[in-house]
Amino acid sequence: YETVGAHAGFRVNHHTSDRAQFVGSSGSFSVVAGEPAENVHLAFPVAENQTVDAFHRAAIELGYRDNGPPGERPVYHAGYYGAFVLDPDGNNVELVNHNR
Asked: In the beta sheet, which residues pair with residue 96?
């Protein structure tokens, strides 16, 4: 999640063999080793469409699977611009700019 975190404004604060904690101005989150959960969707808000684009490119280059290229998603609301990738465990990871 270092790639995701960097684009969403998070940095690694603490890392051990079984967990990593990320912190940023908007809060924190941790990734912990264990049995993968199913149907997880993680969404991180960002302020610019270009950040969404850069995240998607970087994630694909690192082997994440595309689950929705960068673009507007008016089905959610006007101005919604997001991109989706699947992490190695199949979790749906999204960066989104709500353009509000």
From this structure: 45, 82
At residue 6, the pLDDT reads: 86
**Confidence bin at 36 (pLDDT 50/70/90):** confident
What residue spans define the domains of the chain? 2-97
The closest alpha carbon to 19, from 8, 35, 6, 30, belongs to 30
What end-to-end distance do the CA atoms of the chain give, in Å? 26
| CA dihedral (72, 73, 79, 80) positive or negative | negative
Q: Tell me which residue of 39, 38, 57 sits closest to 95, measured CA to CA.
A: 57
Q: How confident is the model at residue 72 (pLDDT cuts 50, 70, 90)?
A: very high
Say yes or no to pLDDT of 37 above 90. Answer: no
Length of the chain: 100
Alpha helices, DSSP H, located in 1-100: 2-8, 49-61
Q: Is 2-97 a domain of CATH 3.10.180.10? A: yes
